[in-house]
Write a structure and sequence with these properties.
4 helices, single chain, about 90 residues, extended
Amino acid sequence: MTTSALKDPKKTAEEHVEKLREYARKVLVHGETLSEEEDADRAGRMVEFHAIGNSFKLTDHEMVVVLYKGLLTGKRSCGCPTCRQKRPS
């Protein structure tokens, strides 16, 4: 993880959210564990994301919503026979 003090905070936060969601998906959805390097990267990104969120006056709840929004929802289907057949039982 590399961060520049000259980067746009909103862009940096978006990059952190994308990577943090990837880590969360790996752990929460796929049941995998993070490597030591991934966990260190996650921890650093969380610190920076929290600092950026605070600078935008976001509450902890709002930051959690940003991180986990859509993470645990399944794909939408139209309900046609093909989509219903693909749906897990």
